[in-house]
Amino acid sequence: MPELSRRSALTAAAVLATSAGTLSAVAPASAAGHHDSPGTFDEVYKGRRIQGRPATGSGHHAHHGAGYAVFVDGVELHVMRNADGSWISVVSHYDPVATPRAAARAAVDELQGAPLLPFPAN
């Protein structure tokens, strides 16, 4: 068996440390049962009406498994649930948040008063 070099040992230690950190960060979301659908909301946030509710039917939401519909001023905001239980939207794709309500609020913040345009789903 070949001897373990210093570089191999450091690489293995870094991989193990990264894996341990990733698992502990994901564990709380998994333990919380992230497959449960969030509740309904309907509020005015910064002058914009945001709504969210469990989606029904077999449309685009069922394809992504989200099963949840979010609207900003009556226009659908495409949201998707990540494997770790966080949510992203088409407007704030690189800034995951904890709930669909937070995704709607982040979209309103990002839009800065601009209207949300419908997202064409294939």
Automatic annotation (TrEMBL):
Q: Where is this region: Disordered?
A: 29-63
Q: Does the keyword Signal apply?
A: yes
Signal sequence interval, chain numbering: 1-31
Keyword vocabulary terms for this entry = Copper, Signal
- The answer to whether keyword Signal applies is yes
Supply one GO BP term: melanin biosynthetic process
| Family annotation (InterPro entries) | GriE/MELC1_sf, MelC1, TAT_signal
Q: Name one GO molecular function term.
A: copper ion binding
Q: Which protein family is it in?
A: Belongs to the melC1 family.
Stated name of the protein: Tyrosinase
Organism encoding this protein: Streptomyces luteogriseus
